[in-house]
Structures are given as structure tokens and as C-alpha cells.
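Researcher: I'm preparing a figure for a lab meeting and need a structural model of a single chain. I don't have an experimental structure, so a prediction will have to do for now. The sequence is pasted below. Please return the structure as C-alpha cells so I can convert it later.
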Amino acid sequence: MDGKQMIIFTPAVLALLLALPQYSQLYSQSPPVIMPVSEIRIGMKGHGRTVFKGGRIERFDFEILGVQKNHLPGRDLILIKASGGPLADTGIMAGMSGSPCYVDGKLIGALSVGFQWEKEPVGGITPIQEMLDQLQDVPDAASARTPLIPPRLSPTRVIRSAQSGEMIPLSEVMQMPEQSMAVQTLPLLLHGTQLSQEAMACWDGLSVRFAGAIAANAENGGAGEPSPIEPGGMAAITLIQGDVNLVATGTITHVSGNRVMLFGHQLLNLGAVDLPLWSASVSTHLASYMNSQKLAQMVAPIGALRLDRPSGVVGIIGAVPKLIPFRVGINLGGKRNLNFSFDVIDHPVFTPLLVSAALTQTIISHVRETGIQSLSLQGNIKIASQQPLIIENMSADLSSRRLPMYLGGMLQAIYLNPFERPVIEGISINIKGEERLDLTAIAGVRPLNARIKRGQTLPVLVTLQNIQGVRETATLNVPVPLSAKQGKAILQVGDGLSLLRSDADWERIRYTSLAEMVLLLNGTLKNNYAYAFLTQAQDGAGLRGNRIEGVPPSIGSLLLSDGDTSANRLQRRVLGRAAMPLEREVQGLLTLEIEIE
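Model: Understood. Here is the structure written out cell by cell.
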């Protein structure tokens, strides 16, 4: 919100944190004495460490029920029945994941599995050796590699989706059937409010559960003594932080030097990552037969998560994660201005989802979720070594989700490019909201001349009708080049999305670099403009992601025959076009014939 103060993570802050008593033991951890699965026996007694309230680490007891061999291919699960603390009422809670478990003083693994609807605190432990084997290769620096477009996700599919104002579903981006996605359902806690259904819809296809936290962040006056960075301590990983915090919380299993191991299961199984790591405190716990959980809050930044594997996650204390600043301004009917600040993780798959979810939640919280409304969006995405990607769109209907989907689709197109790793430097947008429908339909089109000579301009009268039925007339002047062919031409007048959908050449447009992609996206037809296109059924040409307009046939023939792989043979030739910006959404498409002399 306005005036909200953020913790800035600097080396000085880190030095101060590490000087505090609860962090001073960080570098004195000795290697754990471990007990392999082969020595585990039914009936053995042991204890675990976790945080039930505040930042204090407490002990719980357990009895081993057995070992489930090959719980997953090549992986075992130690089954236990726990007792102590609130567990008789809550069972195994979400947030206990990573709690280190010991038998005879030896570390056997991390509590990682609970069961829905359980009446007793029965859970599963990930063996420590599996965690050590899978999490030993932690990079000192964040990886500069970013996945490019997956082989089965075509570049034209990505561009088409973005230009249509849509996001490609997560299951399609990740090329996985919905039922096989993330086995572990780790709650992601949105602090301060429950994530709306509209915002959660951005994550359809991923097995992630959302839960609203009841406590404020400690930095904003919430209660919160951070738990120590040692086995059993509470930690948080943020995906968004700022005016919305989307946080996954869990328990520290083991600390070695400046490496900290958590969870005993995956976060999202992303491999090499660069995510903010925070100390955490537990506000309270919520008992539920369905799924009990700790309600935790982030307290202070301590490092960066660098590895996310099926058997756990690993962070580096003192590392500074790269985050993308996302700034949103909202003007409410010209009467109030609100400013919001977010920092979002940099990831090719999840950044578009997070940005879309944050914008959806912001609109719903301060404009409205459903009902008559008009929202106009303007801004840009700054990309290193590229022109800014211009963001402009408008939505006049009952849904608040269209503009966030449009912004997310544009980000998807940039991230999922097949040419180079994009470096997103920042996202800045402004939204104007009105509680009315600023909607205009194209009700009629009349050219002033049914026949037009080459080299002249064709005036086209366009009749626009608003939602109340009030009509107005505007003129679009379409140039007719000297290179036009005598005979019939097609005049199309409509909004950007309708014209895009009617374009038979959209799949034929090719581009060969990220710069050309940005150029193509910046040329996307908008839905708050009325356009007029004059075309002929003659081979056209495209170059560097854009259609060449008004080019003489002789020059077009040269472009299409010189062997340049960046040229495209198009089915129709665009002679000329005109555009008229409007402060409302335009809908409709009308087509008629023109005779060129």
C-alpha cells in the first residue's frame, strides 16, 4: 500500500543479522551423524525439532512404524507416529516439512509427508542420505541459464497467444498432463488476505494449494521473533514480496557452513533457482482434519534459495537473489491515485504467472472483482539491450482478469523465446478504472468513394455506437499506393483483436531474434483503436516479423525470391491502413469491396 516500507537486503543488513545471537551459531554446525535406512527398525523411538509458536524450537517425539521401500522409484519413506506439542489435535501440519528427526542422537531424515483427513499424527520422513545425495551440488552463484521455448511449444503459438491477450495454460507450457504435475502440495501463504479465485486461476494445472495467513509481517508490527537458523528453525521462501507476499514456509533440516537445507520435499521441483530466503516466525497453528497448518510469517531476509529438488531445497546464507521490480499505479475515476510495489522472482515459467496474479489481486482489492467496469492499461516492460515492450490494452466488461492475462501473455512471449535469455529489468504499468462500460461497437462503414484511383486517399466513414445506443461518426483516411493493382480490393474495418483473428497470414510471419519479437509485439493491434485495412489477393511480403505495406509488386518479388530466410511470402498484400485511437474498447469487424482504378 501507499507508504509501505520494505526491508532492503544489503551486505550491511546481512552483517548485522549474522552478528545477532540467533544467527551466530550458523557457521559452527558440525557434520551430522546420520543413521542409514538399513539400520531403521520398527518400534524405534526418536525425537524431532520444529517450531510450534513464535521462533522457539521445540521437541516432539515419534515411534517408527516401518519403512516404505520405493515410495518413489529408488526412494524410500520412513513412516512414523508422532506425539508432543499440539500434534494430538493437529496431526502432522503443513509447515513441519523439513523438521529434522533423530534416533539415538543420529539424524535419520526430514519429516516431509502428512496425510489428509488423518485422525492421528502419522507422517513420513525423507531419509537424510537421499537429501544429501540430491542436494550436494549447490551452485555458489545463480545460474544464468534460462530455458527456451520447449520443442513442442511453437514460437507462433506463443506470439499468437500474447497478441490475443491470453496466457498459455501452465500445463501446456510445462508439457505435462495435469494429473502428473507436482505431487507435493505445499501451501503457498498469501500474507494479509486470501488469494482470490481469479488470481488462483492463473495457476490452474499446478498442484499447489493456497492459504490465507492471519498475521502481518513482523517488519510491519506483527509479533515475530525469528527462529534461529539451525535444524528445527522456521524459514520462508518468497515468490512475490512487497504489497503482496506469496510465501512458502517450512523447517530447516540441516545447516553446513553457509548452506541451509530445508523441507525434505520439493518446492516446485525447478532445479537451479534464485529465490529470496527469509527467517520466519509462527503466529499460530490451525487444526483441521483435512489439512492442519502452521500460520507463519516472514521476518527478515537471510539469503537465497539456489536448488529445488524432489528431496528438498537448499539455500545460501548471505546470497542476494535477483528480483524483478513490478510497479503498479491505479487511478480510480480520476479521484484517487494508488501506488503499489512488488518484487517478483525471475523465472521463465512462473514470473508471468506471478505478475498476472499480483495484478489480478490488486485490481480486485481496489477496483472490483465483478460488475460493470472499464479498465485501461498502459506501461512497459524493460528488457536489457532491447527496446521497451509497450503495454497498452483496455477491458470493458464484467471481468477483472483480462488485463492481467494480457500482461502475463506478453511476458510469456518474451521469456519463451528461442533466441536468447531475456533480462527483465522492470515492469511498470498504470491502470485507470471507471465503474461504467466504455464500450463501442462498429455499427457501420461507408467509403466516400466506391471507386478510388491509385495514389489517392480513400476516406472511410465509420459509425460507432456505444452501450447506450448513442451513435457517432468518424473518418479514417486510408492511403492507396501507386503500386496497387487495378481491380478489386478488400476493405476491413474493425478492432485489433477481430482483425488479428481474421488474418490468414499470422502463422506465416517469421522472426529471427528477440529484437524482432519485441518489434512484432509492439506492433500488436490494440482493442482500444478502430483500424481500417485495405488489402488485395496478391502475394505480400514480410520482413523481420512485420508485414511490408504498400511495396510495389516488383520489389515484393525480389524480396520473395532472394533466398533471405527472414522474408515471408504472405497470402495477401496490404496496400495501406489507418488507425484511430479511442478512449474505450472497440468491438466489431465489417468487410466490403473497393474498386481500384
